[in-house]
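User: I want to check something. If I give you two sequences, will you return the structure for each one separately, not as a complex?

Assistant: Yes, each is folded on its own. Here is the first sequence with its structure:
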Amino acid sequence: MVELDPIAEFREDHRKVRDGLLGLADALESKNIGKAGEILGELNNLLGPHFRFEEEALYPALRRFLGEYVDELLKEHDGAIEAAKELARLIGKGEIGDDEAKEAASKTRALLVHVSNCDGLAILAERLDAAEIQNLGRKFAEIRDEGIPLLDWAEKIRKKGS
């Protein structure tokens, strides 16, 4: 297994998610369902390991700094997962109307707030000791190696109220 810098990887994931969400919103607004489906699939594959890493490793490690705010982050994940399910259903219809497209694009852009807030956790993660960061790196690598997409992870593995 490759050693990785979990903080750098965490931040790079957020850049990919940011760009993916912006591209998805644009595709939805232009009613390009094929492109929207492609981007949603990429986000599903990226966010499965990312959310799992956050919930199973990073958030518990940061709880000593953030206390109950971690519970808010978990609720934001609930919302993001529901949004992904809703988008998958919408895109699965094969075509969408103008109002649906605008609403879906708006909801997609709203997810950027979590991405931005979550990226700020990296500055707190830097305060963990070297052994904790190394353990986070190992856990992140293990989770990525499993490669379970977001919606599969949420349905089959995720512990509600993690």
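And separately, the second sequence with its own structure:
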Amino acid sequence: MHELSVCLSLLQQLETIAEERNASAVERVYLKIGPLSGIEPHLLRQAYPLAVAGTVAENAELIIETADVVVTCTECGSESKVLPNRLLCADCGDFRTRIVSGDEMILQSLELTTAH
């Protein structure tokens, strides 16, 4: 499962951030995942508990937001929100577009428990 290796990589980031901020636990993890990222959110949710078991993020809630697919047309310059399987310019209909968003996985934020 590809998503398990993604979770393990995410865990490394979480542990690094928690250590830098002297946090005792990660409470919530906010991710933004685009439909063109190659990551299946439901599989990521299944793999997440396995990856974080026994770590600083063991009880952290995983919150996933889906990113829109946005393209810029190389012909007319328009930027438009499109369907993942239809990357055509919404204004002129041209197929020569460049993906602006929708292919990313971003760690947007996390909530930590720190010692006072």
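Because they were folded independently, the notes below concern the second chain alone. The chain has a mean pLDDT of 95. DSSP finds two helices and six strands in the chain.
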